[in-house]
Design brief:
Layout: E1 6-12, E2 19-27, E3 33-41, E4 44-50, H1 51-59, H2 61-68
Antiparallel strand pairs: 1-2, 2-3, 3-4
């Protein structure tokens, strides 16, 4: 199901603008608007983070980068 963001702002994540970060409000099933951060690509619908999950994602970005790098995986 397609959901739209209200009052959204889009930020490019790379120079070719193929990866983007969208920040806005999204309606819940109860009709309440909550803040959402959405990561998208040109060929992917993307992934949504609520504000708490986005904060956790940011806090763990170093671990995620280490895990995804070929040269040094955490033990």
């Amino acid at each position: 199901m397609q959901q739209y963001l209200l009052l959204s702002t889009t930020y490019p994540l790379n120079s070719s603008h193929t990866k983007k970060l969208h920040v806005g409000l999204q309606s819940t099933k109860e009709g309440i608007f909550e803040p959402i951060v959405k990561l998208t690509g040109n060929y992917a619908e993307g992934i949504n983070f609520d504000s708490n999950t986005w904060k956790q994602f940011q806090e763990n970005m170093g671990l995620i980068s280490t895990y995804l790098s070929e040269s040094s995986k955490p033990k």
